[in-house]
Amino acid sequence: MTTGRFILALHCPDAVGIVAAVSGFLAERGFSIEESNQFHDLPRDAFFMRTAFSALKQAGEVEAISAAFEPIAERFKMDWRLYDTAKRPRIVVAVSRIGHCLYDLLHREQTGWLGGEIVAIVSNHDDMAPIALWRDKPYHQIEVTPETKVAAEARMLAVVEETGAELLVLARYMQVLTPETCAALSGRCINIHHSFLPSFKGAHPYKQAHARGVKIIGATAHYVTPDLDEGPIIEQAVSRVSHHHTPKDFIEMGRDLECQVLARAVRWHVERRVIITGAKTVVFT
Amino acid sequence: MTTGRFILALHCPDAVGIVAAVSGFLAERGFSIEESNQFHDLPRDAFFMRTAFSALKQAGEVEAISAAFEPIAERFKMDWRLYDTAKRPRIVVAVSRIGHCLYDLLHREQTGWLGGEIVAIVSNHDDMAPIALWRDKPYHQIEVTPETKVAAEARMLAVVEETGAELLVLARYMQVLTPETCAALSGRCINIHHSFLPSFKGAHPYKQAHARGVKIIGATAHYVTPDLDEGPIIEQAVSRVSHHHTPKDFIEMGRDLECQVLARAVRWHVERRVIITGAKTVVFT
Amino acid sequence: MTTGRFILALHCPDAVGIVAAVSGFLAERGFSIEESNQFHDLPRDAFFMRTAFSALKQAGEVEAISAAFEPIAERFKMDWRLYDTAKRPRIVVAVSRIGHCLYDLLHREQTGWLGGEIVAIVSNHDDMAPIALWRDKPYHQIEVTPETKVAAEARMLAVVEETGAELLVLARYMQVLTPETCAALSGRCINIHHSFLPSFKGAHPYKQAHARGVKIIGATAHYVTPDLDEGPIIEQAVSRVSHHHTPKDFIEMGRDLECQVLARAVRWHVERRVIITGAKTVVFT
Amino acid sequence: MTTGRFILALHCPDAVGIVAAVSGFLAERGFSIEESNQFHDLPRDAFFMRTAFSALKQAGEVEAISAAFEPIAERFKMDWRLYDTAKRPRIVVAVSRIGHCLYDLLHREQTGWLGGEIVAIVSNHDDMAPIALWRDKPYHQIEVTPETKVAAEARMLAVVEETGAELLVLARYMQVLTPETCAALSGRCINIHHSFLPSFKGAHPYKQAHARGVKIIGATAHYVTPDLDEGPIIEQAVSRVSHHHTPKDFIEMGRDLECQVLARAVRWHVERRVIITGAKTVVFT
Question: What residues of chain A lie within 8 A of the CB of B26, using their CB?
Answer without folding.
Answer: 16, 20
